[in-house]
Design brief:
This is O-antigen ligase family protein. By secondary structure, the protein is an all-alpha fold. 67% of the residues lie in helices and 2% in strands.
Length: 442
């Protein structure tokens, strides 16, 4: 599931392209970098690495890239729906902008560039191994960067709002994304494989720590749901057993301690253990100005009520009611509360997209994800070995599942940092049907 088939690639070429792809994932995932070096340079670095990945692959660059255009000319429904969804989304942004003084149309060129990235991904299709190595690199950079900055004295690079931890390139609200996309494939491997390697347990621990450091309630909920889904599917596949129960309990405890212990909600009993440990950690590890009573581990935010989110939901619903058909313009559905200095974009992707881009853009946005998922599950239904096919695609399924669920609590973005991990998953799932049909004909 997490291995790559490299038999068709010359070793040196594969290594070079794999390194370039890992660099593309890692650089793109460092979302805070664009605030330090500027968004244009951030895009340039990410796209340079991505272009190198495509150019260094053994397949002919031009012919393979044009093959996507050939498939479009064949008028296959899947290809038309797949690319039509992106164009429909962009059209929704343009229509909404035209109806509201062209507000928000600046984002269309970015989405067209992202379509170009997806075009190459569909043409070459990254392997599970390439994507996983990129996620490994991103996770290690995220954690090691924080540790090195913390202990080397460059405290100005740390970003420590109350009860949350991060650094300039990966501030709180972003750092959880460096670990959460690894949870589904690793959790699935740990509950299914008889003898998981020490490395997989270690990288799973790193992913959990990154989620815990952020203190994101969305990520904590996603981690719990990942465990529940993996356990349920494993039960349906093999049935209960003593080994199964032991394994899922160990995985649950691992996640509870590393995620819930670092930034738990007040109802999490693990906080009492970590609070006690926090009292013995030297206060100098916090900052030179730390209070004498400070503890490195503090009670995290409650998972319960949130007045700002409530206000956002109300504004999102109001925006949908008022601009359902044509939209109000990309990025215009915002909420303002007394605790906020400036209005903030509604943190609920589906209400935001429907209110901002109208029905056309909303249908296009949903189609971006529904089309590849529909064709994948169609292939799964017709497969003679559906579980094997599922095993091979846990990674892209997990990425898309996390992204779609996260949209319930976060806005949509037009930055490469938000799409670099999702686009490979879309390409991988969309092309599964083609590979599956080819295998059936053989």
């Amino acid at each position: 599931m997490l291995s790559a088939d490299v038999s068709v690639c010359p070793r040196k070429t594969y290594r070079a392209s794999s390194v370039a792809f890992a660099f593309f994932i890692a650089v793109s995932g460092l979302a805070g970098m664009k605030l330090v070096i500027g968004a244009p340079l951030h895009w340039f670095l990410a796209l340079t690495a991505f272009t190198a990945w495509a150019a260094l692959r053994p397949e002919p660059l031009v012919r393979t890239t044009l093959s996507v255009f050939t498939e479009l000319l064949s008028l296959k429904p899947g290809w038309l729906f797949f690319w039509g969804a992106w164009l429909c989304f962009c059209l929704g942004i343009l229509v909404a902008g035209a109806a509201n003084g062209w507000v928000g149309v600046y984002t269309v060129p970015k989405y067209l560039v992202l379509m170009g990235v997806l075009w190459l991904l569909v043409a070459f299709v990254p392997t599970n191994g390439e994507v996983v190595r990129g996620l490994y690199l991103l996770a290690l950079v995220g954690l090691l960067g924080l540790v090195i900055i913390w202990f080397s004295g460059y405290r100005e690079w740390l970003v420590f709002p109350p009860k949350r931890f991060g650094w300039e390139f990966l501030p709180p609200g972003v750092i959880w994304k460096t670990g959460v996309f690894l949870l589904p494939p690793l959790c699935w491997l740990l509950v299914n494989q008889r003898s998981p390697s020490v490395f997989h347990w270690m990288i799973f621990g790193v992913a959990c720590v990154l989620v815990g450091l952020d203190g994101s309630r969305t990520a904590t909920l996603l981690a719990a749901m990942t465990w529940l889904v993996c356990v349920t599917l494993r039960w349906l596949r093999y049935g209960p057993s003593r080994t199964f129960f032991k394994r899922v309990v160990v995985v649950a405890l691992w996640m509870a301690v590393l995620i819930g212990g670092l930034n738990p909600s007040p109802w999490n009993p693990v906080i009492h253990i970590y609070s006690a440990l926090g009292e013995v950690i030297p206060e100098r590890m916090l900052s030179p100005e730390a209070d004498s009573d400070a503890s490195i581990v503090q009670v995290g935010r409650d998972m319960g009520s949130d007045s700002i989110r409530t206000a956002m939901l109300i504004e999102g619903v109001r925006g949908v009611q008022e601009h359902f058909l044509l939209g109000s313009g990309f990025g215009t559905t915002v909420a303002q509360t007394e605790g906020m200095s400036v209005p903030m974009v509604v943190h609920m992707t589906y209400l935001q997209v429907l209110a901002d881009t109208g029905l056309i853009g909303f249908m296009g946005y949903l189609g971006i994800f529904v089309v590849p998922l529909w064709y994948f599950f169609s292939a799964l239904r017709e497969s003679d070995a559906p579980w094997d096919l599922f095993d091979q695609n846990v990674l892209p399924l997990g990425i898309i599942g996390i992204y779609l669920f996260g949209g319930l609590f976060h806005p949509v973005s037009n930055e490469i940092s938000e799409w670099a991990i999702v686009l490979p998953a879309l390409a991988m799932l969309f092309k599964v049907t083609e590979r599956f049909e080819g295998e059936r004909r053989l």
